[in-house]
Amino acid sequence: MSTDTTSPGPRIYRGLNHKEGIGWIAGMTPVQAFLLIAVCTPALIAMSRNQWSATLGWGLFAAFVAVLILIPIHGRPAFRWLADLIMFQTGVLMRWSPWQSRAAAGLAGDHTEPDLPGVLARLQFPDGPEFRGSRICLIHDTAEGRWGATAKLTHSGVGMLSDDECERLASRLGSMLVGLGHREIVDRVSLCVRTVPDDGTEYAVWRERHQRPDAPALARQVTVEIDHDVASVSVRTELFVTVSGTEEALRRPAKAAGGGIAGRAYALYRLLEGVADGLRGLGVTSVTWLTSTGVAEAIKTGFNPAAAASLSFRHLTSPDPEGTVGLPVSQAGPALAPAPAARAYHHDGFSSVSYAVQPPESGTTFGSLGPLLAVRTAGERRTLAVHYEILSAAEGARVVKSDRFRNNVLVDAKAARGFNTTEIDSRRQRGAREQEAAVAAGHAVVRYTVASSITVPADWNVEDHAARLENDASGRFRLLRLELAQDSAFVAAALPVGIGLPRQKRAFTA
């Protein structure tokens, strides 16, 4: 999806939204058009030779193949489903999919070397130089050549805000994204929100430290009973932001800063304060950039929500809470992740189902994703991630010009041949013109994706809880279950490492 920051308020999420991947040739990609021509050629040749029986046979075959190529089923054509199924089953049969950590296998390893499954295996976590008293962990995506950093945020939420206040926050978010786009160093911002089942560990430790020995016995008993009842249904929320830039964008400023990992870190550090200021304008009260132990704990609790209690207890009972006590990167991943199922992902005694969230064509407003985080049963965990990519001014201009030209050609061709122009065609044409005008006025084009997941203990029926998440989205958003890719979808929806946007394959289309 893509959008712009043309106007204030919730229009950052509506008005000029476009879907990626719609082809130039009657809505087909070049590959689809080539395959369709190839399967239709025998029927056309037979027709030119007046071989009508052969024409009928080849025509039926071509129609069948065209349905497999063109008709999407849950977001993917049948041929794509077949290719994905072959790759999925190959990974299962060749034993590439099951995962076991080195620690679980009893193997020794460097505590600074990551031990992570699936798409996370391409990440490295070097420590940058000191920044405001701590060494920030850099997230290096070796596959895409990206460098980033993650921060943990404190926010009061938007559930009690008025519509006007939500519009102001949306406008500020758009301004922050435009500002990052003008710098052309950081071009991706990922926001990840996770609910945390609160078992009362932190409060219990606090009470032990502040317990009054002269308190009445009855008051103690009542307090214990209240704590027991409330702790089982309490839910907290944690919020992360990950910012990253490409190797190409960082190379020159990194070279000027001394080169190497430290140079890339300094190039990112120069923008972190600006990002923090923009986030404070969105109501964030604190921004804490994570060290390697902080990133490791964020990943670990993503895979294993039950680990949050022990990690919190370790920090609260440590004699040096501000020190380096924490989880090493080598232990950030799950201990065990069996071969993924087609419709769910199993890890460390938990099961997760992940979805791509598709906003409606009519648009949505700031804060409307909140129902996806509404926990229905004590013990389940819900996550929501929004990934933004700000295109450079040159790339944005190229994209909107290509989009406008394609829509004009489509409408003009229909009119010239006497076909009626649908309202969808007209709306896309108007949107393309408006988006080109907005980019010419200095606004930015932003790609974005939204992913959501639900995690429950492995002995629960995960399908029941997935159905509840789908019910919460019904009437607001369309949830597309990412079958055959649940392990990668879980990373995009639940882990604050900046993975979640596919590579841009071609120009945006309306």
How is this structure best described in words?
It is a single chain. α4 runs antiparallel to α8, α7 crosses α8 (260-280) and α11 packs antiparallel against α12. The protein has helices spanning 30-48, 52-70, 78-93, 163-183, 201-210, 217-231, 247-256, 260-280, 292-303, 307-317, 393-416, 423-440, 462-473, 486-494; strands at 2-4, 72-73, 76-77, 99-100, 123-124, 127-131, 134-137, 139-141, 146-155, 188-197, 235-246, 284-289, 336-337, 345-347, 350-358, 381-390, 445-457, 478-481. β8 (139-141) and β9 form a beta hairpin. The protein is built from 14 helices and 18 strands. Strands 1, 5, 8, 9, 10, 11, 12, 14, 15, 16, 17 and 18 form a twelve-stranded antiparallel sheet that branches. Helix content is 43%, strand content 20%. By secondary structure, it is an alpha+beta fold.
Main attributes of the structure:
SCO6880-like, two-stranded antiparallel sheet, disordered N terminus, membrane, twelve-stranded antiparallel sheet, globular, 510 residues, transmembrane, alpha+beta, 14 helices, single chain
Distance between the termini: 10 Å
Number of alpha- plus pi-helical segments: 14
Q: Rg, please?
A: 26 Å
How many β-strands, per DSSP?
Answer: 18
Subunit arrangement of the protein: single chain
What is the mean predicted local confidence, pLDDT?
Answer: 83
Instruction: Give the overall shape, derived from the CA principal axes.
Output: globular
* Percent helix: 40-55%
Protein name: SCO6880 family protein
Transmembrane segments: 21-46, 52-71
InterPro entries: SCO6880-like (IPR049978)
Keywords: Membrane, Transmembrane, Transmembrane helix
